[in-house]
Design brief:
The protein is an alpha+beta fold. The chain has helices at about 40-45, 80-110, 115-130, 135-140, 150-165, 170-185, 195, 205-225, 230-235, 260-275, 285-295, 300-310, 365-370, and strands spanning about 5-10, 15-20, 35, 50-55, 65-70, 320, 325-330, 340-350, 355-360, 375-380. It folds into three domains: about 5-70, no CATH class; about 80-310, Orthogonal Bundle (Hypothetical protein af1432), CATH 1.10.3210; about 320-390, no CATH class. The protein binds fe (ii) ion. Fe (ii) ion binds near residues 185, 213, 238 and 239.
C-alpha cells in the first residue's frame, strides 16, 4: 500500500509533505517538494492553477480529503474462486445479520454500541472481500422485504468495503469505512415507526423527523466508545450533496470529505436497488444510470465512475438476456470487459422454457459465437419466478 495520496490543492495544510509526483513540481510552478511549514507557502501554492497535489502521509499529515493513488484500475484480483469463498461469505453474512439485529435491539433500548464485535465483523467482511468480493455481493442481492434497515445497513457496509478496497485504501481505513457503513443509518431506530415505514409520501413534518435520523445516529455513535472519525463522517455526511441540497447541514463541495462522498454513492445505490413493500427496486443497471445522472450535481463524478468500474455495469446477481434468447444471472462481472461477464444461464426466451443451468463466460467464447452472445437487456428474476440464489 502506497503512502502517497492525492489531495485537492485547497485542502492542503501545514504539516503535509508534498511529493515530486505533484503537477507543477517538474516544470517549476510548484517550487519544490517537501513539508509545508508556513502559511505563506500554502497561499503561494493555492494561487497556482493546479487541481491537486500528491502528499506522502508517512512523512507528513494525512487528510480526510485525500484519495489513494491507484496503481491499477483493478485492485480486485480475487484470491480464491467464487465457489471456494461462498460458504465463508454465508457465515460472515449470517454473523452480520445476527450482530446488526442485536445492535438495533440494543439501540432501541437506549444502549450504546459495543464497538469490538463491529470491528471484528468489519475485519471478517474485508477478508472475505479480498478473497472474492462476489461471494458477499451475491448475498447482498437477496433481500426480505420487511428487513430493510438491517439489510441496507449490512449492504452499505459491504459496498463501501468493496469500493474502498477498489480505490486502494489501506486495510485500517477500509475497516473504519466498513464500520461506518454498517452503522450509518443507526439513528433510524429513533425515528417513529410510522414515519420510517410509511408507504406513501412523507408530509413536511414527517420529512423533518426522517431527516433527524442523521443527528440521532451521530448521537448514538458519540455515546459509543471507540468509533473513529471516519465512521462518524459516514454517518454524518451520507445525505449531504455536492450542490448543497443535502442534509442535515446543507454542506457543499469541498465541505464534504471523501468518505462522506463515497458513502453517498453507495447509500443511494443500495437504497434504489432495494425492493420495499410499497415499491420495486431498480435493477443494478438502472441504478448505475441514476448515479451517473446524479453525478451532474449531487454526487462526486469521479467517485461515481470509479464505483461503476468497481461493480461493473452488470454487477453480480443481475439477470441478463442475450441476443440468442438465453437468460442468465451474472455470477462474475468482468471489470476489464464490462459487457462480457460470466453468467449462469437458466432460461431460453425464444423457446419460452427453462434449460439446465450452464455457466457461460461471455469473454471466453470463440470469436464466431460471440456475435450471438451479446447482452441485449436486463431482466427481473421475478419475471421467471426463480430465486436467483439457486443460480449464484
Ligand atoms: Fe440515511
Amino acid at each position: 500500500m502506497s503512502d502517497i495520496k492525492r489531495i485537492p490543492l485547497n485542502k492542503l495544510e501545514i504539516g503535509m509533505y508534498v511529493t515530486e509526483q505533484s503537477e507543477g513540481v517538474a516544470d517549476g510552478r510548484v517550487q519544490e517538494k517537501g513539508f509545508i511549514r508556513r502559511e505563506e507557502t500554502l497561499r503561494k501554492l493555492q494561487a497556482k492553477k493546479i487541481a491537486e497535489v500528491y502528499i506522502d502521509v508517512k512523512k507528513g499529515k494525512d487528510s480526510p480529503f485525500a484519495l489513494p493513488v491507484l496503481t491499477s484500475q483493478t485492485t480486485f484480483k480475487a484470491r480464491v474462486v467464487l465457489d471456494e469463498e461462498r460458504s465463508r461469505a454465508e457465515k460472515v453474512y449470517g454473523e452480520a445479520r445476527g450482530l446488526m439485529s442485536d445492535i438495533i435491539a440494543n439501540v432501541k433500548m437506549g444502549k450504546a454500541i459495543d464497538v469490538a464485535p463491529v470491528e471484528e465483523l468489519a475485519e471478517d467482511i474485508n477478508d472475505s472481500i479480498l478473497n472474492n468480493p462476489n461471494a458477499l455481493l451475491c448475498l447482498s442481492q437477496i433481500r426480505e422485504k420487511d428487513q430493510y434497515l438491517l439489510e441496507h445497513s449490512i449492504n452499505v457496509g459491504l459496498l463501501i468495503s468493496v469500493f474502498s478496497t477498489h480505490l486502494g485504501y489501506d486495510k485500517a481505513t477500509v475497516k473504519e469505512l466498513t464500520m461506518g457503513g454498517l452503522l450509518h443509518d443507526i439513528g433510524k431506530i429513533r425515528v417513529p415507526y410510522q414515519v420510517l415505514n410509511k408507504p406513501g409520501k412523507l408530509t413536511d413534518d414527517e420529512w423533518v423527523e426522517m431527516k433527524m435520523h442523521v443527528a440521532y445516529g451521530q448521537a448514538v455513535l458519540q455515546e459509543s466508545k471507540g468509533i473513529s472519525d471516519i465512521a462518524k463522517s459516514i454517518c454524518g455526511l451520507h445525505h449531504e450533496r455536492l450542490d448543497g441540497t443535502g442534509y442535515p447541514m446543507g454542506l457543499s463541495g469541498d465541505e464534504i470529505n471523501v468518505y462522506g462522498r463515497m458513502a453517498a454513492v453507495v447509500d443511494v445505490y443500495d437504497a434504489v436497488t432495494a425492493s420495499r413493500c410499497y415499491h420495486k427496486g431498480m435493477s443494478p443497471f438502472e441504478a448505475m444510470k441514476l448515479l451517473v445522472k446524479m453525478s451532474e450535481d449531487h454526487l462526486d463524478k469521479g467517485l461515481v465512475y470509479s464505483f461503476i468500474r468497481c461493480m461493473s455495469v452488470y454487477p453480480v446477481g443481475t439477470v441478463v438476456e442475450l441476443n440468442n434468447g438465453l437468460v442468465g444471472v451474472v455470477i462474475e462481472p468482468n471489470l476489464q470487459l464490462p459487457s462480457e461477464p460470466k453468467i449462469r444461464t437458466f432460461f431460453n426466451s425464444k423457446r419460452r422454457s427453462f434449460e439446465a443451468a450452464k455457466v457461460v463466460d461471455l469473454a471466453k467464447l470463440p470469436r464466431d459465437s460471440k456475435a450471438e452472445h451479446k447482452i441485449m437487456c436486463t431482466r427481473e428474476a421475478e419475471e421467471f419466478k426463480v430465486d436467483i440464489r439457486d443460480y449464484l
